[in-house]
Amino acid sequence: MNNNNTPKCTLYLAPSTIPNAGLGIFTSIALPSGTPLPGGFDAAIPISDMDFHNDGSHDAEDYHWMFSEYLWSSGSIGKVMEYEAEKTSGFSWGYGALPNCHFWMINVMESSCDFDTVGLTPENSPGAGAFTGHYNRLAHAYEDVKAGGELFVSYGTNWFTTRESYMGLVPGEDDFEAGEEFIETVSELFESLVDSTTVKDDVHYMGQVRVDIWNMIVNSPYKSRPLAALPKAYKTAARAMDVGIMQTEEELATHSVEYLEEHGKCLDHIHPQNSTIPHAGRGAFATRYLPKGTVVSSAPLIHIPDRDILTMYDDSEDGESRDLSKPIGQQLLLNYCWGHPKSSMLLCPYSHGTPFINHDRQDPNVKIQWMKNDDRYHNSSWLDEPVSFFDSEWTTKLMFEYVALRDIQEGEEVLVDYGKEWEEAWNEHVKAWNPDENYVSPHELNKDYDFPLKTHEEDASVYTDIFGYHTGTDKKSGEREIHRIRARRPDPNNKNDGFVYDLEVIGSGNYVKRVKDVSRSQMHFYHKPYKADIFREGSFRHEMMIPDEMFPNAWRNL
Ligand SMILES: C[S@@+](CC[C@H](N)C(=O)[O-])C[C@H]1O[C@@H](n2cnc3c(N)ncnc32)[C@H](O)[C@@H]1O
Fold first, then answer.
1. Is 359 touching ligand 1 by the criterion CB < 6 Å?
2. How many domains does one find in the chain?
């Protein structure tokens, strides 16, 4: 893809070096440990109570939900997401979705998310609740990574053990250590074989004996994770006997920079920052000059064959299940997926920056197109399959390219046309929208300590949709509690916060306790579960529309 006019790229999507692991991501420049990684921050989309809203359990495969392979626990995304609903997971689309996991070569660490809605709230913007506020998930190199090296994150130890039935025995960190010890023992055995054999001078013969013994070991019918950590080919094993498995794996986990430039797909031509478009939240911006025709970004697509699974429902009367007669909205994820009015199919891109690309119908500077057929990335025969085919497909084999329609300057916002239906729906939404003048944002409260909080007596309604987090002295040990502020006094110690408060704290078992002299900095506010902007009735939801001329006829099932 690169030629002399193509701007220099440093982060690539390319086939993983791990056999059968699909695609992975690679750096084309050396990254010393601690370096922030290219491509900018990740965001995370909260996905709430999926099983409840689908009256099933994903384990039972009651509904086709490939996202379960890509989601992070809300705890790893951050406290705000953890408290948003009873059961929330986060979809984080860049470093949070693209890298593979190799437990002995974890070289990328990601932070948790901050929360901020770019100042857009139900009080001032029809865009509030229509995009995610979880952002700033930053990745850095955890080890030195060589130019061409594949980037690996940790999926956590349980990830592979809970997927053994279809992923097989994927070695963990301890298994590589056991493998390393085993290789040393075998190496010693091979040395002693040379010493003890009468044909020690027959190098060819001894070489063959070693290959045979090695093949017997790795092809043993008794499978185990430590066995899976051993190199399959004798040539690689022999290298591991010289330099250790770790270095051998590192050598294997590298593509040449030339390979990446020729076959890889650039991921860091865009990066996120606050959008220039009113009410849109964040957007994607060009990191460098991108001439007309440049593939600005490429994104694998997660398919959702039945878009109805994103509908959320109110509780039934017994509170145990959903009430199908009471739909209450759609998961926020819908706003990040592409669809078509004549199909139940949704395609959701995951790639650095692409989900941040906002809409412009009049003057878009990129368009989407299907990638050309390529076994490694995009299987165009899938465009001829009916929607039912996708119910039993659990890999991503379709990709969009975002192509520059004209020259794009460094720093310019990258914009795509979401389609006529999207624009009409947005205009209708803006027309019908009313500001909520009583809205109190917990996140604004947490940023600003400079005004006195109201007591319950002064205004009982003001904090009804938020709850505090009070801890005495240790923030981490706090629990979810609802506060009523009973009294406010000037801080006798005259600290920065200005006031101290007496609180009535109502805990989860409805116990009530009173706490005196709490300073502002000891309190942290969150929305009560299901009270965040994304759960508000009428918050904007609409998928982006795949242009009719590129939408496959085979998928038109409505
Ligand atoms: C795919 S996301 C784009 C990224 C999003 N702006 C963010 O901050 O995460 C689509 C959502 O962005 C917002 N958006 C995109 N383009 C917009 C526009 N032209 N006007 C208003 N909102 C827009 C809408 O909330 C839309 O549902």
1. yes
2. 2
Q: Is residue 129 part of a domain?
A: no
Q: How confident is the model at residue 391 (pLDDT cuts 50, 70, 90)?
A: very high
285 Cβ below 6 A of ligand 1: no
In a domain, 422, yes or no: no
Distance 188 CA to ligand 1 centre (A): 61
Q: Closest ligand 1 atom, CA of 127?
A: 25
DSSP string, 421-483: HHHHHHHHHHHH----TT---HHHHHH--SSPPPPTTT-TTTTTTEEEEE-TT-GGG-EEEEE
Ligand 1 in contact with 96 (CB < 6 A)? no
The tens digit of pLDDT for each residue in 137-181 reads 999 999 999 999 999 999 887 888 888 888 888 888 888 899 899
Which pLDDT value is given to residue 476? Answer: 41
Residue 123 covered by a domain: no
CA pair distance 406, 364, nearest whole angstrom: 9
Cα 359 to middle of ligand 1, angstroms = 7
Can you tell me the ipTM of this complex? 0.98
Range of the domain at 446: 442-535
Query: Is 425 a pocket residue for ligand 1 (Cβ < 6 Å)?
Result: no
Q: Can you tell me which residue has the tokens 């600003």?
A: 448
